[in-house]
Here is the input.
Amino acid sequence: ISVHPYRNSKPETALEDYSKLRKLINKYTDKKLPILSGEWGYPVNTKIDNVTITEQKQAEFLIRMFLVNASKDIPVSIWYNWRNNGIDPNNNQHNFGLLTHNYQPKQSYNALVNFNKVLKGYEFKKRLEYGQPNDYIFKFTSKKGKKVIAFWTTGPSHPITINFPSGKGKIVNIMGEEQPVNWNEKQIILNLSSSPSYLVVE
Here is the structure.
């Protein structure tokens, strides 16, 4: 079942829509039919929830879209669009691309390259809940048992302490900048913002 989850709201609002669609599918068949995200994107220079979509915000929404889809077992996610269709900053159809019209990478392109690098070989395991519905803390694991935590918030930026086995690793931001980190007492503090980051556990 292929859907186009375009919306004038944040990517996270698709979570409930996917659940409703799954219930509808299950109502009419016992077959395990996959749901595909056949087309979805956000153009630069528009407004979503009164927030202007800059290149940075487009990159954030792109990665949050892929993370949301992963959490709902969406095996195929197609972003619209590969390249800007034109050069008019006021034309939505000219500003969906990962690349500019003359093939220069936008921040969304670089964020997607980093996303694929960090989470290659990992599968979504579960969402870690800490009583804050606007916080998204997703645990990914590899077949070898390695772990990555993707985290962000749709609310104001803030730190949060989560329970996690003592260890070390690195925090990788949306553009691939890395910062080594270690923690003990089976807790770690994560700084959540609208821009997803990754805790890569060594």
In short: Residues 55-71 form the longest helix (17 residues). DSSP finds three helices and 13 strands in the chain. The chain has a mean pLDDT of 96.
